[in-house]
Predict the structure.
Amino acid sequence: MFTGITEAMGIIKKVFEAGSNKIFWIKSPIAKKLKVDQSVSHDGVCLTVEEIKGNQYQVTAIAETISKTSLSNWQPSYLVNIERCMKLNGRLDGHLVQGHVDTTGNCMIKKETSGSWNYVFEFPEKFAELIIEKGSITVNGVSLTAFNVTNKTFELAIIPYTFENTNIKNIEPGDKVNLEFDLLGKYISRKLSLNK
């Protein structure tokens, strides 16, 4: 379980294919703090640390994960948002995030607005009931607040700190991002669908 607050940025150093899987070596300032078998969020995707060498570590994404996320676009030099799992004795600064990407979205608009940035993202309409005005959403593993929500789009306002300390700054119109909708909203939606 995560909070959607990016702890560090990593850089993809090497990408290997192993059958239908992809193996990534990631350089990160927190690599030495990690442990083998630890779950870590990478752009909102929960992946298991398999090996650590100095300031780099290895993770593997299986075909199912690759097909439902933006990981197929990861190449050497790509910057990735990294977060270790939350501690139960700490503050929850973002919101409850599982690291299980629901779908991908596409950036439609990126606009600077006197020191902050506004983005508009498009997402599959079948997820419309899972996003609400001023509700939490995770974009590339970052906990953010959606507004101007429609059945197919939502907008984000990004403060300078988030812009500078996550890979949100690198997102341009046409880019694919990982989306995870609010966990509580998903349970409520499921419960209501069963009661129909």
